[in-house]
Amino acid sequence: MRFTCYPAIDVRDGCVVRLRQGDYAQETRYDADPLARAMAFADAGATWLHLVDLDAARVGGYTLAPLLRRIADGGRLQVQTGGGVRTSDDVAALLDAGAARVVIGSLAVETPARVVRWIERFGAERIVVALDVREEDGRWLPATRGWTQTAGSDALGLLSFYRDQGLRHLLCTDIARDGMLSGTDPALYAALRACAPSVAVQVSGGVRDLDDVRAARGAGCGGAILGRALLEGRFDLAEALAC
């Protein structure tokens, strides 16, 4: 399975930001120009970008279409993007604006049958199911609506369902580690890989150094989301891509 590094740009109020553990009250701002940051990633050799609309993640209504189109039209980065995707028209609009893949979060947990229909309609390569999880009593429970609500369903059960329906791409964020530079949890991603070996699992939450990137690749995952550590220069993007 090919491994991909996804430098991440999370946008809130037009700025590049990072949250700690998904808490909107714990925000760090980095750039006022997301496009310039994206092009800097491309200059370093990135071929993919993970773009998130944090405002839309809570209330719906994706707002980054102009930015998405400018990045996509540049032809240097393929973009997977999400935040507030609620309908098939939302998916179609993002694909029309240049997205290579659309990330589905809350609805992937709340209405799986609907998301399966989108996989069938748009193709498995165009849809990423995002499960943002918290560990509770030995179970990984997905959070929804900008991580403000916790579902009762188990992440591995949901993954089993999607695996059997042809899912190709899963993005799983460990909320407790997200933005904390605490390292990733090998047990979580080993469980996901064991559940669905044919699904490309993207590691998200806690990536702090090149060893975490190497560990994700060594575990057979499909990629890693590079967030706060990359923005703060804790490792070089070109070195991560070389991993």
From TrEMBL:
Catalyzed reaction equations: 1-(5-phospho-beta-D-ribosyl)-5-[(5-phospho-beta-D-ribosylamino)methylideneamino]imidazole-4-carboxamide = 5-[(5-phospho-1-deoxy-D-ribulos-1-ylimino)methylamino]-1-(5-phospho-beta-D-ribosyl)imidazole-4-carboxamide
Compartments where found: Cytoplasm
Pathway: Amino-acid biosynthesis; L-histidine biosynthesis; L-histidine from 5-phospho-alpha-D-ribose 1-diphosphate: step 4/9
The protein's Enzyme Commission number: 5.3.1.16
Biological process according to GO: L-histidine biosynthetic process; L-tryptophan biosynthetic process
Keyword Electron transport carried by entry: no
Key words, A-Z: Amino-acid biosynthesis, Cytoplasm, Histidine biosynthesis, Isomerase
Keyword Isomerase: yes
Residues the record marks as active site: 10, 132
Annotated Gene Ontology cellular component terms: cytoplasm
GO MF term list: 1-(5-phosphoribosyl)-5-[(5-phosphoribosylamino)methylideneamino]imidazole-4-carboxamide isomerase activity
Annotated family: Belongs to the HisA/HisF family.
Protein's recorded name: 1-(5-phosphoribosyl)-5-[(5-phosphoribosylamino)methylideneamino] imidazole-4-carboxamide isomerase
Gene that encodes it: hisA
